[in-house]
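Q: How would the structure tokens look for this protein?
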Amino acid sequence: MEVARKVASTVQAGSLAPSREYASWSSNNLSATVAAYTLTSAMGTGLAAMRERFARGSGGLSTAPWPYCDVPCALGRVADVESVEVPARRLSRNNQLVSLALAQDGFTEAVRASLARFGSQRVGMVMGTSTSSIDRTEAGYRHRDDDGRFPIDFQQPDTHHPHAPGAFSAELLGIEGPSLTISAACASSAKVFATANRWLQQKLVDAVVVGGVDTLCLSVIYGFHSLQLVAPEPCRPFAVDRQGISLGEAAGFALLTRDDAASIRLCGVGESCDAHHMSSAHPEGLGARLAMLAALEDAGMTMAEIDYLNLHGTGTKANDATEGMVCADLLEPHTLVSATKGWTGHTLGAAGIVEAILCIEAIARGFVPGTCNTREHQAEFDLLLDSHSTNVKTAMTNSFGFGGNNCSLVFGSC
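A: Here is the predicted structure in token form.
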């Protein structure tokens, strides 16, 4: 309802008319460009820390226990999130991570430059998350009073709802344009790029901040453990001896515009929903195949033109086998292929933007991360085990989530 009211009020104010600056934006140049980006994960706070960890070949997973949790597992935890100060009405681990991430890499400054350029109502916000503020709700239940009520500190109507991190991000950045949250399991923050690109195509806005954030919590750890999907050791995607998922947390953001001065473009988006099962992909990978082919068609490319593919690669027996079957059929021999969740953990609703940013980084810096922790793979294609520096002009990333939610993205240098 909050999102609907905000969009409706913006339309009534007349601020959604196309701006003069982009009135002549041509129909043959409809893809968004990446003006700025940032990422905070178990690999470090901000891009420089992440790059340093990649250079050392040191992944971010740890077997240190999570509070109140007895599940044996490795987790991708972001350091010092608990110390980040946010307003009391917004307090949650997700919002603390949002605040920490937005302070990195000059990202907030880049967004404010766009606000000054276009106006605050001409910049939108699309957030992807699957947990929102569940950690805060869990804590509220642990601290219930004798009557079973949440203590006053936990009565936070601005926090206990799915749109909380998106609304908080827009508030921090000063965005007053359309604001939307997408919760589509592990494809959530890949799909934000699709929505943002449509908004830009329709000239609803002139710039969009896309983001993804999820933090670890008991609901997530015990939920995946109940499905027998959590590995007791750091995950090994596509490995012969893989045991399952390592859960993680992350927050990533990108600023998308129609500015041709930017050097990296969102070339294509493919979305599908196979609706096969709540927690299992179609056994023949039909949804994954549809998403990949749709992204290539949208980009006007073939698989032969993709230099790097970032796999969804969760490290479970079923997911890796299904994705591997599809990719073995579609891949060309020269394409570099890796799965990166062994570095960061599976960051759930943030996984899409984490791996999109790794693709953007591959294009911007010529660095392709290997498949961390995997030494002997079972893929029917040449899986890159060790990180590699090379020229990358085009990159694709796959995000496949529960409920049959699938999204593939193609990025390229302009």
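The chain has a mean pLDDT of 91.

The first helix runs from residue 2 to 12.

Upvote if useful.
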